[in-house]
Design goal:
This protein is of the alpha+beta class. The protein contains six helices and six strands.
Amino acid sequence: MMLQCFFKKSEYISMLFVAFVWCMPTSAQTASSLNQVPANSNLAATDKLPNEEDALLQLEKQVFDLINLYRTKKGLAILQWSDAVYDPCLQLSTEMAQKTAPFSHEGFEKRIAQVTAALDLAKPRYLAASAENIAFGDLTAEKVVAGWIKSKGHKKNIEGDYTHSAVGIEKDANGILFFTQIFIKIK
């Protein structure tokens, strides 16, 4: 599993943290069953089955809920889900899974501009801070969150003074999951 995070406070400070964390893969039976396409199906091997899409949506919710559970245990405010944040999260995860974008934070400022435009914040409200965590691997929600918490940079983002977040997850043709979580603070 590979994890990265990016922290941006206004437009002046940015830090990039990379952590490599070894994790045990989930059972081969589970992984292979998610990649099977019925013989009588018109789906291509790279198309998502309806229940597979539901599974990814459920995994996104589990990661989000585990982050909020961790924040609650630390006495921090829970994050509110934001659809404006979700779209660029899913877009980056999809691009990384399809190999049209590198596994990196390249384009982070563009994603935050997309979030800002989607939020259409009326003055005096504004986007005060933002951060991003990414990961990939054969991971459960528990494993990706545990990996981020073990990484100083990811943990800083998770524990940061943010108000909203979302998680987007996509699977590549080999069944590897790509995770993106963006955090924002609206003032």
